[in-house]
Specification:
Radius of gyration: 22 Å
Strand order of the largest sheet: 3-2-1-4-5-6-7
Strand content: 5-15%
Number of strands: 13
Shape: globular
Distance between the termini: 59 Å
Largest sheet: 7 strands, parallel
Number of domains: 2
CATH superfamily of the largest domain: Glycogen Phosphorylase B
Length: about 475
């Protein structure tokens, strides 16, 4: 049975990164694609897939997977555009965050069907780290689209994407499965252990995984029955493992490969505390899943996404929080909160080098972890409340929002030319979007040739050998 009144639409997704590896965007696109296919729509996924690899997340049998290479070079834009022009689709959804989004959006310009630009991250962090502060270039990728998607409404305001984008925006958070087994955060496991779990990419960029490792190792001697489990892979895992082996408490730290489904759920349900040390997040699915499992959680108060899910002193702790009266949970909320003075310098930083600020963040995280590791009563209290705080992220609700959004666009497909004309007449900033995008593509290509992009320092330089 087709969902949209018996009308079968065709949807094409581009993006998400390498789909043979774990990733929040890939997972979200996969779930949306599967949901639409289950409803009877035609769904195509143009994705990066390494040779002899298979998608990490299971795709519905009716989803058409077409491996592609994104047009990273200017010379590749035309051939990619030619490929898009051959599509027989009602809507094209471009779900990417990097600079090559410019090339793809340029390739999609003028197609005879609506184009949706979808971004799944913290816009301030992406602007700073991915776009090198070039708001004009990032804005152009949205202005070239007919419709836009962000995780939260306020993500279109700071940084400001302008009236044209905001008026065609649909905000939908990440989907989270709430039908999961519950953890027992106050009770010892059968082996007499208590477990901290962290799920996601193991790397410095955005995730700052090493901060949790250091904080736990500082606490390990005082908590011999506690273990710290890292679930996932990443660029820093091997170096973290090697550094960890040199520590006398290395036997309390465990690294696990990326898993999904029941295997991942088992990690959550058998743990006692979830810690997310990220510097920036969009709508962290791992955090949402942990809360759904009834795990109390700890993350930084100044981390976007994290401070929207963790409600301070209700379902966990926001490290660096100075005012316990405020917290974030409602996806439509912009509730105020205060960041401690120790975290303030971090907000103005322009690099990722080791510093006193990084050490302060480690100590702040360690303090919050100690508080919950010492108190089974608080872990149980916060864990009992946790599932109630993520109800608005329920996967069925979120996926239905995506279906309604895309089907509504598909129904208006025939009017796309007049729609674009109306938008250009209403919003003058759209008139020069194409030229701005072209100039930005040239700037970034030139910068890449001169190799002036910032480099992320290796883990050992950021955290030292301990």
């Amino acid at each position: 049975m087709v969902s949209d009144g018996g009308i079968r639409h065709s949807f094409t997704f581009v993006g998400g990164g390498e789909i043979s590896t774990i990733g929040g965007i890939v997972r979200t696109i996969t779930e949306i694609a599967n949901h639409l296919a289950q409803q009877g729509h035609e769904v195509r996924y143009l994705a990066k897939l390494r040779p002899y690899k298979t998608p990490f997340f299971d795709l519905h049998k009716d989803v058409i997977l077409e491996p592609v290479e994104y047009p990273h070079a200017v010379s590749q834009i035309k051939s990619f555009s030619d490929r898009l022009k051959k599509l027989k689709t009602d809507v094209l959804i471009v779900a990417l965050s990097g600079k090559h989004t410019l090339n793809i959006m340029k390739a999609a310009e003028g197609l005879p069907f609506p184009v949706v630009r979808s971004e799944h991250g913290d816009p301030e962090a992406l602007l700073k780290t991915v776009w090198n502060g070039d708001s004009e270039a990032r804005n152009a990728t949205f202005q070239l689209a007919d419709y836009s998607h962000l995780l939260y409404p306020e993500f279109a305001i700071k940084p400001d994407l302008g009236n044209a984008v905001r008026d065609s925006l649909y905000a939908i958070p990440s989907p989270i499965n709430l039908n999961v087994p519950q953890a027992s955060p106050a009770r010892y496991s059968k082996d007499g252990k208590m477990k901290i779990v962290s799920v996601g990419r193991i790397e410095k960029f955005e995730k700052n995984t090493g901060l949790l490792l250091n904080a736990f190792l500082n606490l390990a001697e005082d908590f011999p029955n506690w273990e710290c489990h890292f679930v996932g892979g990443g660029s820093q895992q091997l170096e973290m493992e090697n550094l960890c082996k040199e520590h006398p408490k290395h036997s309390q730290v465990f690294f696990h490969e990326s898993v999904k489904g029941e295997a991942l759920s088992q990690h959550y349900s058998s743990s006692h505390l979830f810690v997310i040390p990220s510097d920036s997040e969009g709508c962290p699915m791992a955090l949402g899943e942990a809360l759904a499992h009834g795990l109390p959680a700890i993350g930084f108060a100044d981390c976007t996404g994290v401070n929207k899910m963790i409600v301070h002193e209700r379902n966990g702790l926001l490290a660096g929080m100075t005012n316990s009266r405020f917290g974030f949970a409602d996806v439509n909320s912009q509730s105020p909160f205060e960041v401690s003075p120790e975290l303030q310098p971090k907000l103005a930083r322009d690099d990722f080098a080791i510093s006193d600020v990084e050490k302060e963040r480690e100590q702040i995280l360690e303090s919050s972890m100690r508080q919950l590791m010492e108190s089974p009563q608080l872990r149980e209290q916060y864990g009992n409340q946790a599932p109630k705080t993520v109800l608005e992220y329920d996967s069925q609700t979120v996926l239905s929002q995506w279906s309604d959004f895309l089907c509504d666009i598909a129904r208006r497909n025939a009017d796309i030319s007049s729609y674009r004309k109306m938008r250009r007449e209403t919003y003058p900033e759209l008139i020069n979007a194409s030229e701005i995008a072209e100039n930005a593509i040239k700037r970034f290509s030139s910068s890449k040739r001169r190799n002036i992009f910032k480099n992320i320092l290796p883990f050992s330089m950021l955290y030292g050998n301990r």
